[in-house]
Design brief:
The complex is a heterodimer of chains A (115) and B (228).
Chain A: H1 2-16, H2 21-45, H3 53-75, H4 83-90, H5 94-112
Helix pairs in contact in A: 2-3
Chain B: H1 2-13, H2 27-55, H3 63-66, H4 81-105, H5 109-139, H6 160-192, H7 194-198, H8 202-227
The chains are: A mainly alpha (115), B mainly alpha (228).
Chain lengths: 115, 228
Amino acid sequence: MSAHETTVSHEHHGEHASMTKSLIWKVFFILLGVTLVEFFIALYALPHHWFSQEIANFVYIALTIVKAAYIVAYFMHLKFEKVGLIISVVLPIVFLVYFVALMIIEGNYLLFAIK
Amino acid sequence: MSTVAHLEEEVKSSAWSGGKSPFSVEYGKLMMWFFLLSDVFTFSALLIFYGAMRFKSHSWPDPDVVFRSVPGVEHGEYPLVFVGIMTFILIASSVTMVLAVEAGHRNSRKEVLNWMFWTILGGITFLSCQAWEWSHLMHEGMTLHHNPFINADGSTGAVQFGQLFFVITGFHGFHVFTGVVINIVITINVLLGTYERRGHYLMVEKVGLYWHFVDLVWVFVFTLFYLV
């Protein structure tokens, strides 16, 4: 049992060599930069009517998914795991797309059908 | 006889035949991933319901008006400044957590201790900020069943705003709180040299996954409550 655990931790060690200090800081500055872009949109671009709130919302959500992807791939190290693990973690999230679609249809009904 | 034994050995050593872990991660870490996946669905249910509530409303309170205060400034008008600081603190504490994990791979007990300390400090600071924000909003009259803020178009504010805000940020705050407690337990173990004797710092990695998840959820809460 202990021998097995040691093997696993050892294999791990090899894979983890890919996550260096410089990469950690690089990801940090990407996350910080994306957040600053979001603040720029909220505090400068929108008050100056560069584009509508609807477009801004779309951009916000897209940037949020980019940040989420960086956190999961690098900080949580999923990018460097076995393909099987990546699929078993990421694939179930497909259900959420259906959930969102369902709730948009429902919200649309409540907004226009019921007055 | 020896051929059979040889074949058995070969079957057992392939990835999906029970010989070794097909994911090549330790059991506890795999279970942490699956726990976090279940937590993803819990938070998604809350956030998607909140989205649906907004989508069905003609208008909604303007976040730039609701979240405009910073501590120490009376009647200040600083939209998003305070929550920006909170976001920065949480992302920074996520970075110190990865640095702790990285130090763990090099079995450097001193560095792990140092980075864990900063991570815990970041977590406690974030919780204090949230406590201030909550008490400030309650002071302005926001409760689970009352919303003092008018909608962006000037109509009476959506009643469910207060409840959605407190339940969702509260559920996230509870995760931060448990994360800080678990981080403290792990740090005590590092201090006692438990993982040094074990020969690896896998426990730091597991609690790290949980801590990054807390950061991940905040990224979504921040966008959906404070920006959209």
